């Protein structure tokens, strides 16, 4: 029994702890031995990259478009494929399938496809692969140049490049107007991929000594038709002449026009033409539902407000024809508070503000964006449900680009075009020629929400908002007047008075350039056929522009409205009554003497313009003072005293000239706005634009 107690409980050979330690020691030695062996046989990183590039290049000739289903079917580098996965780009579109393979083979490509078809990735991927094959570094300089028509499109392309190329070591730069030129100059020589607008690029070519493109491998022209439409043809020719001849060029556009083909002949060598939707039944996406509605001009704002109120949970873009129109309606709708965030995007904004609005609209799930055609080209706004064109587009191509902001990448969308009765026939004909399927829908006028009264109240409270509304009125008429297609756009058929009232204006401002155009038109017509245009018709149109009734019957009807509006008789804006003029006499006279504004529209709209008068009646032989006292009451007309003073002043001026032959005469134009009578005599109260002047005229 004692021997049994002395026996060990566990055999040393079967001890699990000791066995594990032995196994670990043996495994560690074996692992270190294998590791050292692999290290000895490991190839350098540059050699591995070179072998990978060689394998990829061998597969380029084997690319079959019909067999491409996903991006991994292309012979792309692992870094690019990883960037596509991280950017959530999974399946290639048709334009990407047909162009990426040709671009990887080093061929020049001229590609055309519908809006929203994914043309950006079609050149971003070949650009990254081009520099990857050559192991490009920052010391090699500029390798890829991408030119976009607008700052917003260039910024969007830059963001896509950052997503897809985040795993590569290339440096990329965004060179657009509105940014610091000195900062761009300091970094541009180290940039491998440069995304820019034509004007800014040409400026760097002319002014930046460190900028050079002698090693350029690829040139990309995005939205080439838009670049040429914006008047950059000469700029593009100058840019292309300064680039090396030995390069690859990719040119993309939504439409194939004659100007695009001319540019292709200058910049491309034996290009491959890729027109994805050439034989398509329609030129717009099949998932896009398109309708149009006929609406009177004075009902447009009510229609817009009603539309927004009925789509509070949707994401919509509303297109207008001018910046001034966008500015006024944005401010007005912010006051109306339709119940949904309202954003604005137009060309007169600062660049940082435009980028902020762009990113803000992308983040919001429901919002309304008021925009000009600056947002109609290339910009990718995700999940846009509606595109409303409140103003008729210039042509069918502009229409296609506008509606292309929705129904992108096989998603659904809806578009609504608002047409005036005079625009329906001509615009519908153009859309049919471009194979655009569009249907007419009717609206119930009784269901439209009337906001005219609220706008009138806003304008009565804010003078600045009223002036913005007047500029909006003139700017819209100017945009219609400058349209080339007169079959669609006829400014002389517009109900100007009713349109001004719909904006909240009591009286339609007088538009000078329309009066000149009407006078020129009537003169030319009278020379050809004197009997076609009568004086009554011309006077009727002039009255229409001035917001006055044309005939006696309409005058009688207008007498019941407001007598102050008739007696104001201002050329452009006769909405301020006589009491406002007397209360703000000094401020008004000085404010509106400054007519040097940068805005072209302001030159056609005289806000209480103070005209120069011949105060003493020397030139025309008459002395007609404007007898208004400080309370704007009219004094009794003194014809005999005026005649005596006129003769006396003429004699004094002649005598003064005789007695002072060697002295120079200095005259200043004084705008007289008050005629004062005191016991010591009469005084003229006026201003020369900067000073308030009181002139003693004569003693009674």
UniProtKB/TrEMBL annotation:
InterPro entries assigned: Cux_N, DEAD/DEAH_box_helicase_dom, Helicase_ATP-bd, Helicase_C-like, P-loop_NTPase, RNA-helicase_DEAD-box_CS, RNA_helicase_DEAD_Q_motif, SPB4-like_CTE
Domain Helicase C-terminal: 287-449
Compositional bias annotation for Basic and acidic residues: 549-558
Enzyme kind, highest EC tier: hydrolase
One function term, GO molecular function aspect: ATP hydrolysis activity
Ranges spanned by the short sequence motif Q motif, renumbered to the chain: 69-97
Basic residues compositional bias, start-end: 23-41
GO cellular component: cytoplasm
Annotated Acidic residues bias: 564-581
Domain observations: The Q motif is unique to and characteristic of the DEAD box family of RNA helicases and controls ATP binding and hydrolysis.
Stated name of the protein: ATP-dependent RNA helicase
Origin species: Xenopus tropicalis
Gene (name only): ddx10
């Amino acid at each position: 029994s004692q021997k049994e107690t002395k026996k060990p409980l566990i055999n040393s050979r079967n001890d699990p702890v000791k066995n594990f330690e032995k196994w670990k020691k043996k495994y560690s030695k074996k692992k270190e031995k294998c590791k050292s062996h692999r290290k000895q046989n490991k190839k350098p990183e540059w050699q591995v990259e070179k072998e990978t590039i060689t394998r990829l290049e061998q597969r380029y000739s084997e690319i079959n478009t019909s067999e491409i289903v996903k991006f991994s079917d292309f012979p792309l580098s692992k870094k690019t494929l990883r960037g596509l996965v991280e950017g959530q780009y999974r399946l290639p579109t048709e334009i990407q399938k047909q162009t990426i393979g040709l671009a990887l083979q080093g061929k020049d490509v001229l590609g055309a496809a519908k809006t929203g078809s994914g043309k950006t990735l079609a050149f971003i991927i070949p650009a990254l692969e081009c520099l990857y094959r050559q192991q490009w570094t920052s010391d090699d300089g500029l390798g890829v140049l991408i030119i976009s028509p607008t700052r917003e499109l260039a910024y969007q392309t830059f963001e896509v490049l950052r997503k897809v190329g985040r795993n590569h070591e290339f440096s990329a730069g965004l060179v657009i107007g509105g940014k610091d030129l000195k900062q761009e100059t300091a970094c541009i020589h180290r940039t491998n991929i440069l995304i820019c607008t034509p004007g800014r690029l040409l400026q760097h070519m002319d002014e930046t000594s460190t900028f050079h493109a002698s090693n350029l491998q690829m040139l990309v022209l995005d939205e080439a038709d838009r670049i040429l439409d914006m008047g950059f043809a000469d700029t593009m020719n100058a840019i292309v002449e300064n680039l090396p001849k030995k390069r690859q060029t990719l040119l993309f556009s939504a439409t194939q026009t004659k100007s695009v083909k001319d540019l292709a002949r200058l910049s491309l060598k034996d290009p491959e033409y890729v027109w994805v939707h050439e034989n398509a039944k329609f030129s717009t996406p099949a998932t896009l539902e398109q309708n149009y509605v006929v609406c009177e001009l004075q009902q447009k704002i009510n229609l817009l407000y009603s539309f927004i109120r009925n789509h509070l949970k949707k994401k919509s873009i509303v297109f207008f024809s001018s910046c001034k129109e966008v500015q006024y309606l944005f401010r007005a709708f912010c006051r109306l508070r339709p119940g949904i965030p309202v954003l604005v995007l137009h060309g007169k904004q600062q660049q940082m503000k435009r980028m902020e609005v762009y990113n803000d609209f992308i983040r919001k799930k429901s919002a309304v964006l008021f925009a000009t055609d600056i947002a109609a080209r290339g910009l990718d706004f995700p999940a846009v449900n509606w595109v409303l064109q409140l103003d008729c587009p210039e042509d069918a191509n502009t229409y296609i680009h506008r509606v292309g902001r929705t129904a992108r990448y096989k998603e659904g969308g809806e578009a609504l075009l608002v047409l005036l009765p005079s625009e329906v026939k001509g615009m519908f004909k153009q859309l049919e020629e471009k194979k655009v399927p569009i249907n007419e829908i009717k609206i119930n006028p009784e269901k439209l929400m009337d906001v005219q009264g609220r706008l009138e109240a806003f304008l009565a409270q804010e003078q600045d908002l009223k002036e913005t509304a007047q500029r909006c009125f003139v700017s819209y008429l100017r945009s219609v007047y400058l349209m080339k297609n007169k079959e669609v756009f006829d400014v002389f058929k517009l109900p100007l008075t009713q349109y001004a009232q719909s904006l909240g204006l009591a009286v339609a401002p007088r538009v000078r350039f329309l009066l000149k155009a009407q006078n020129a038109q009537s003169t030319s017509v009278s020379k050809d056929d004197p009997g076609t245009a009568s004086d009554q018709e011309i006077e009727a149109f002039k009255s229409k522009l001035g917001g006055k009734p044309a005939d006696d019957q309409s005058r009688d009807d207008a007498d019941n409205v407001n007598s102050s509006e008739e007696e104001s008789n201002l050329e452009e804006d006769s909405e301020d009554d006589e009491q406002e003029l007397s209360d703000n006499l000094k401020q008004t006279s000085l404010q509106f003497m400054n007519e040097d504004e940068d805005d072209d529209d302001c030159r056609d709209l005289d806000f209480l313009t103070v005209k120069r008068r011949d105060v003493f009646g020397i030139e025309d032989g008459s002395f007609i003072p404007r007898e208004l006292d400080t309370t704007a009451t009219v004094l009794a007309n003194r014809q005999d005293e005026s005649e005596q003073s006129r003769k006396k002043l003429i004699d004094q001026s002649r005598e003064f000239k005789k007695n002072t032959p060697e002295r120079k005469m200095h005259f200043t134009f004084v705008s007289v706005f008050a005629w004062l009578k005191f016991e010591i005599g009469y005084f003229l109260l006026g201003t020369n634009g900067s000073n308030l002047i009181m002139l003693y005229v004569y003693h009674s």
